[in-house]
Specification:
alpha+beta; 7 helices; 387 residues
Length: 387
């Protein structure tokens, strides 16, 4: 079984394929922004500051500075578009996967979901044909077409149909997709509740599978191994893990500074053949760990001190979990016979004391955001059927 992110994050770097490009990716192909001199607005996820380039190649604007240029414009492999007002997809033509999919989930009280029976997976017309993922690539591949934005989050036929675009799809192991991922989607809908809205950000991850030991005092290296499906040279890369970030905002404001509750998960894209059961609470991760791995910034207007608050609150949930997510055998993860130490993440007595102290400090005179999985809310044990 592939290791969850919280077991190896302290020893990995931000090597999500194509994710670092999202920080300065050109924002193309929005349905409402196609003109003769189409401008590509950079989607700077950290600073929130647009970088623009004129299509005639004469001017480059970067962080407010202007320089003349005679270089021709090229199109980024990242396409960001909005199929509807509640959905944003950042698609990477190199991996044929989304980098992230962001949705506004609103569950109307008493409303029924649209029917899936009339829906079918389809290619995205916003993407050139040679850059698209295709239905044929999945046939007899051994992988499901896994939704990033869940179809069941939508009651509108049109909006649900948008989730069946292959730009919203990644290859997922059938066990992971149909059992674990499905239960996680249901859990998020339960946590958010009817009549409330939440922002959900979902995407793929590529994590290392093996440590390559070195000699002469050099640093260890980390080897990446993942599969691909398709017809060369057009290959859909198969992620090793998937993440979900969910948060709700205060009803008083739509500003991200008013985060009311949050949670972040990472699930291995695995068949879990060695596991009899899994607990969704085991997949909880810290936001800054996930940001370091994806290259994305989920709260670009917040400083590091504020993000530390989210991490401490997450660690508090770990500490109080009935099943301690950091209680691993010998504090290592076996990967192809090797092991990765996780001492930095193990919640020692000293670390637990620091968490309690920090929570007392940051809670003085302020209302802290709530972790959605507090008080065992995400403790959902899933029994896995074995052949």
């Amino acid at each position: 079984m592939a290791p969850p992110l919280n077991r190896i994050i302290s020893h990995t770097v931000a090597l999500l394929v194509g994710a670092s490009s999202a920080l300065v990716a050109l924002k193309h192909a929005s349905k409402n922004k196609n003109t003769e001199h189409e401008k590509a607005a950079a989607h700077d996820m950290i600073a929130g500051q647009a970088n623009t380039r004129s299509r005639d190649g004469t001017t480059v604007m970067f962080n407010g500075s202007s320089k003349s240029s005679v270089l021709p414009a090229i199109k980024s492999p990242i396409t960001i578009f909005n199929p509807n007002i509640n959905l944003e997809i950042a698609y990477d033509a190199r991996t044929k996967n989304p980098i992230y999919v962001m949705e506004r989930m609103h569950l109307n009280p008493g409303s029924k979901n649209a029917s899936r029976t009339s829906k079918s997976f389809h290619e995205s017309k916003d993407i050139p044909s040679y850059h698209r993922s295709r239905n044929g690539y999945y046939r007899k591949s051994g992988y499901d077409r896994g939704h990033m934005a869940a179809a069941a989050n939508y009651s509108s036929d049109e909006e649900m149909n948008d989730t069946f675009s292959l730009s919203n799809i990644s290859p997922q192991d059938p066990v992971m997709n149909r059992i674990i991922w499905s239960r996680l989607e249901k859990l998020l809908r339960k946590l958010v509740g009817e009549g409330r809205s939440a922002i959900v950000i979902t995407g793929p991850l590529w994590m290392p599978s093996k440590i390559v030991r070195t000699e002469n005092g050099q640093r260890d290296r980390y080897q990446y191994t993942n599969y691909g499906i398709g017809v060369p040279p057009s290959i859909v890369q198969v992620p090793t893990h998937f993440f979900k970030v969910v948060y709700t905002l205060s009803e008083r404001s739509g500003d991200e500074s008013e985060v009311k509750a949050f949670a972040a998960f990472v699930v291995p894209n695995d068949s879990f053949v060695e596991e009899k059961s899994v607990n969704l609470q085991d997949f909880l991760v810290r936001l800054t760990d996930l940001e370091a791995t994806t290259g994305l910034s989920f709260f670009p207007k917040k400083n590091e001190e504020t993000l530390e608050v989210f991490d401490v609150i997450t660690e508090d949930v770990w500490m109080k979990s009935k099943i301690n997510v950091n209680d691993f055998d010998d504090k290592v993860i076996p990967i192809d016979g090797e092991g990765i130490g996780i001492s930095q993440l193990a919640l020692s007595k000293n670390r637990k004391a620091k968490i309690r102290k920090r929570l007392r400090e940051i809670s003085k005179g302020s209302t802290l955001p709530k972790h959605m999985c507090a008080d065992g809310a995400c403790s959902d044990i899933i029994k896995l059927k074995k052949k």
